[in-house]
TrEMBL record:
One of its GO terms (molecular function) is ATP binding. PANTHER family: ALIPHATIC SULFONATES IMPORT ATP-BINDING PROTEIN SSUB, TAURINE IMPORT ATP-BINDING PROTEIN-RELATED. Residues 3-230 form the ABC transporter domain. This is ABC transporter ATP-binding protein. The lineage of its organism: Bacteria, Pseudomonadati, Pseudomonadota, Alphaproteobacteria, Hyphomicrobiales. Pfam families: ABC_tran. Signal peptide: none annotated. Keywords: ATP-binding, Nucleotide-binding, Transport. InterPro entries: AAA+_ATPase, ABC_transporter-like_ATP-bd, ABC_transporter-like_CS, ABC_transporter_ATP-bind, P-loop_NTPase. It comes from Ancylobacter mangrovi. Belongs to the ABC transporter superfamily.
Length: 249
């Protein structure tokens, strides 16, 4: 699903959160937004989702202006938001149930996603029986179940430790490669952004402006060895310089 953000600004009372942001997401691309806390990353995500309206500018999804909450998209938040009384497989199928679909028709796909995410054997487990990383993998499977053309992710690994979130990145890459949905991914991690993305967007401190758009030309699939490749280090440094330069101005 293509997304076209044109000259978008958003104010909350007297606070300008996002200022004159323009960005185009190609269909099937993985785009990450990085920047300091409070720079408007999550605000931009919610604007694309149609959960809030821009103060100025326009957002089109597949050529249609966003006027309200979008349907047929997937969303993943920092917290897994799993229903504690439902088993893992049933939590993943919940999105089909809420859409009025027969869960039996989506059961096989849910099981396939669980296998890809490393959750095979935990179909009957309750959320409290899963680690934090496993819960988040389940929430990503749920978001991808219905093959939505657009998935919005707001710091989905932010509450995890460094080792777990690195593993989550590889799991997400596997799941995304299967679906090839368009993904807009918010993160504070430069490593995470460069490893996962086709494009990394660097935002300034509030008011959030787009300072740099960095194409990531690393071959896929990416693996732990990618982190040591010279090109990965070069791209990470460019993103880092874009963030650090803001504090020098």
């Amino acid at each position: 699903m293509s997304v076209d953000i044109r000259n978008v600004s958003k104010s909350f009372r007297s606070t300008l959160a996002v200022d004159d942001a323009s960005l185009a997401l190609e269909e099937g691309s993985f785009v990450s937004i990085v920047g300091p806390s409070g720079c408007g990353k999550s605000t931009l995500l919610r604007l694309v989702a149609g959960l809030i309206r821009p103060s100025s500018g326009t957002i089109d999804v597949r050529g249609v202006p966003v006027k309200g909450p979008l349907r047929n998209i997937g969303m993943v938040f920092q917290s897994p938001v799993l229903l504690p009384w439902r088993r893992t497989l049933d939590n993943i199928l919940f999105v089909a149930e809420m859409g009025g679909l027969k869960t039996s028709q989506w059961r096989e796909r849910a099981l396939e996603l669980m296998q890809l995410a490393g959750l095979g054997g935990f179909e009957a487990s309750y959320p409290h029986e899963l680690s934090g990383g496993m819960q988040q993998r389940a929430s990503i499977c749920r978001a991808m179940l219905l093959k939505p053309p657009l998935i919005l992710m707001d710091e989905p690994f932010g509450a995890l430790d460094v080792i777990t979130r690195e593993r989550m990145g590889y799991a997400l890459q596997t799941l995304w490669d299967e679906s090839r949905s368009t993904v807009l991914f918010v993160t504070h991690s430069i490593t995470e952004a460069v490893l996962l993305s086709d494009t990394v967007v660097v935002m300034t401190p509030r008011p959030g402006r787009i300072r740099d758009i960095v194409p990531i030309d690393l071959p896929r699939p990416r693996h732990p060895g990618t982190l040591r490749e010279p090109r990965f280090l070069e791209l990470s440094e460019r993103v880092r310089e874009g963030i650090e330069a803001q504090w020098m101005e």
